[in-house]
Amino acid sequence: MAVPRSRVLDLLKVQCRIFSSTFNPGRTRTGNKVLRERLKGPSIAAYYPRRVATFKDLKNLYPDLETWDDDEEDRLENIGLYEVPSIDA
User: Fold this and answer.
1) Cα separation of 25 and 59, whole Å?
2) What angle do CA 62, 64, 68 make, to 5 degrees?
3) pLDDT one-digit tens code per residue, 1-33
4) How far apart are CA 32 and CA 4, in angstroms?
5) CB contact at 8 A, 14 and 7
6) What is the pLDDT of residue 84?
7) In sequence order, what DSSP letters do the residues of the chain get, joined into one string?
8) Among candidates 61, 82, 80, which has minimal Cα distance to 72?
9) Distance from first CA to last CA of the chain, Å, rounded?
C-alpha cells in the first residue's frame, strides 16, 4: 500500500518545523548548511595579535621625531611619476 506524495510532504513539513530545519522537497542547493555555521571571523581575529603601533601613530605622538616609512615614500614617489607636469605659458 503506497502512501500519497502529498501526505509524505505534509509529514516532512511538520518534521522540519519541529526540528528547526529547512523544508526543501526539491533538494536544491540553498547554502543553509554554510549559513548555520558559527562565524569564523572573531576567532581568526583573536588568533593574531593586535597591531601595537604604526608609523602614523608615532608621527602623531612625536611630531619632532624624524621617522622613515618606506611604503609611504614609495607611494609618494609613484604618485609623482604619474603626475602631469603643468606648463605655464
Assistant:
1) 62
2) 80
3) 788 999 999 999 999 999 988 898 888 988 888
4) 28
5) no
6) 77
7) -PPPHHHHHHHHHHHHHHTT----TT-----HHHHHSPPSHHHHHHHSPPP---HHHHHHH-TTS----HHHHHHHHHHHHHPPPP---
8) 80
9) 98
Query: Using alpha carbons only, what angle is made at residue 52 by residues 57 and 40, rounded to the nearest 5 degrees?
Result: 120
Q: Which three cell numbers stand for residue 36?
A: 548555520
Q: Give CA–CA dist 58/4, Å, rounded.
A: 74
Per-residue confidence (pLDDT) for residue 4, from 0 to 100: 92
